[in-house]
Amino acid sequence: MNRNDKKILDFAKTITAFVVEKFSRSRMFHEMGLYTGRRGKGGDLAKNGDLFVERILKDQMPSLLKNFNFPGATVISEELGITRYKDYKNKYSLVLIIDPVDGSNNLRPQMATFPNVAFSLGIGIRYEMEKQKNFNGVKVAVIADIFNKKVYHAIKNHGAYLNDKKISASIEKNINKSIIGMSFDRTGEKFDEIYKKVKKLLRESYCQRRLGSTSLDLAMVATGQYDAHVSLSLIIEEAGGVVKMNIFNKNGFKITDNFIKYFLDMDKIENKTYRNLRFNIIAANNKIILNKIIKLLPKQEQNNF
After folding, report:
1. pLDDT at 259
2. 227 is in an annotated binding site
3. Residue 110: CB partners within 8 Å, gap ≥ 6?
4. Whole-prediction pTM value?
5. Distance between CA atoms of 59 and 148, rounded to whole angstroms?
6. Is 99 marked as binding a ligand?
7. Which CATH architecture has domain 175-303?
8. What residues form DSSP beta bridges with 254?
9. Among 175, 181, 174, residue whose Cα is nearest residue 204
10. pLDDT tens-place string over residues 204-261
11. SS3 label, residue 112
12. Which residues are noted in the entry as Mg(2+)-binding (predicted)?
């Protein structure tokens, strides 16, 4: 790992540690899962927890950039959308992709002792992100299991880790023995639509799992607890797995192969919102399982991967 990668990792870990401490110690944590009554830039109803974390980031980002000697940053986040700091157009500025609170529905009023709630971020250098044209430009990724004292991280080409101990994906190659993470969070027509797409996979796989946090489900693939996750990441790839992802608009058309330029140019897009975007993700332990999963999807979905 070169010196700059180490600096980016330390920057990511510092942000993560600060968020985890503030969030887990907040006296208002029992209200973090409540809706605020407005929609974020991602289109979903915003929750107190999301806004709490994003306020922390907004307050701390200028001083963190100064302390780590980065010229500026562009932050892409679920609720606030695109936020820019200092010399964000500098080719050596950072691009941060953040999900402030993943699993907020697990923050129940009665508050389970150790709810599955995650903070996650990916970081890259602007010119490298633009050159790669997609999320392959992410150099460092971190997922924090906020209440369970687990921090997953990966450095591109240097492996994936859980609490600084190296992890690896499973070696399973038989879909009939595979444990698949899968989300059925939508109801009504959405549920029926999703079920039609994955019913063959449900029959063929050994069993399904869901933690209520997509970030933590993806971490389970990286640690070998799951063999795949389907939701019609760098940590997965560095743990020896594979990821397929595409972005579509509300009409089902693929947005662009240049994901990053799309987001960095968000200020040119009407309403500066990405609420109509749909992300298709398959993360698997190896290409054999990945290809078997794709073949079990309807033809139209297969073409999306």
Report:
1. 54
2. no
3. none
4. 0.87
5. 25
6. yes
7. 3-Layer(aba) Sandwich (3.40)
8. 248
9. 175
10. 999 999 998 999 999 999 999 999 999 876 666 667 777 877 665 555 555 445 555 5
11. coil
12. 78, 99, 102
